Amino acid sequence: MATVLVVEDERDIREVLRRFLERSGHAVLTAATGAEGLRLIDTCHVDLLLLDLGLPDIDGTDILREVVGNLPVIVLTARSDTRDRIAGLQEGADDYVVKPFSPTEVVLRVRAVLARGGSVGAENGRSFGDGALRIDRERRVATWGGSELELTSTEWDLLTALAGTPGRVFTRSELVNRVRGDELGMYERTIDSHVKNLRRKLGPDGPRVVSTVVGVGYRFGLGPDA
Ligand code: CA
Question: Domains in the chain: how many in total?
Fold first, then answer.
């Protein structure tokens, strides 16, 4: 049973989502504000976040940036504007639903995202490349060919951001964002040296696991295991 956190200021939407999600076998937490949502993320086990972008206290995209890479997120947005949807996905949301939506559709998307990512809280985490790489976010451990990788926190953030969506190309500025480099005064070019170090730790296959997309950025080159 997965725990879904619904962060949504409109009471009716919150409650209808709770009802439908509970009916389909999920445990549900709800928050009416961004601050309450972040508090629950910090203090409770959450497998997936349903996040309204239009919140009264905090911009939903700021919350998205905060949790992305650690938690699958489906964005709820009233803005049907294509630009906003793309912005949400670029910030790393796993999917988005435009209001008004049918609760059944949301439940199906929740199921799809959870199936795709496996349960983030699963004991063995996720594995890639026929088990070559395993990432266990809860224990914050990554193993490569069975041996534990000793990663810096930046390398860990990089690896989990890239592996969060295998095959997707991430620009350097997105990666800077993911590793919270903006707070640390990190620049786009610094990403290159962190990628280099991460690859070195992955050995000869490093450039295949994290491949360069010339002129754009990087992408995770292993396929996710079922
Ligand atoms: Ca709202």
Answer: 2
pLDDT over 90, % of the chain: 38
C-alpha of residue 99 to centroid of ligand 1, in Å: 10
226 within some domain:
no
3-state secondary structure of 48: strand
Distance between Cα 33 and ligand 1 center (Å):
9
Q: How far is the CA of 171 from the centre of ligand 1 (A)?
A: 29
pLDDT of 7-37, one tens digit each? Answer: 999 999 999 999 999 999 888 999 999 999 9
Task: Supply the range of the domain harboring residue 142.
Answer: 125-220
What is the spatial distance between Cα 17 and Cα 153, in angstroms, rounded to a whole number? 35
If you measure from the C-alpha of residue 161 to the centroid of ligand 1, how many angstroms do you get, rounded to a whole number?
27
Whether residues 206 and 140 share a domain: the answer is yes
Cβ atoms of 209 and 113 closer than 8 Å: no
Residues 200 and 157 in one domain: yes
pLDDT (tens digit, 9 = 90+) per residue, 183-195?
A: 556 677 788 989 9
Both 82 and 147 in one domain: the answer is: no
Q: Compute, in angstroms, the gap from residue 82 CA to the centroid of ligand 1.
A: 18
* Contacts for 120-124: CB closer than 8 Å, 24+ residues apart: 120/47, 120/48, 120/70, 120/71, 120/72, 121/45, 121/47
Cα 217 to middle of ligand 1, angstroms: 34
42 alpha carbon to ligand 1 midpoint, in Å? Answer: 22
Q: Is the pTM for the entire model greater than 0.85?
A: no
Domain presence at residue 202: yes
Cα–ligand 1 centroid distance for 155 (angstroms): 35
CATH code of the domain containing 94 = 3.40.50.2300
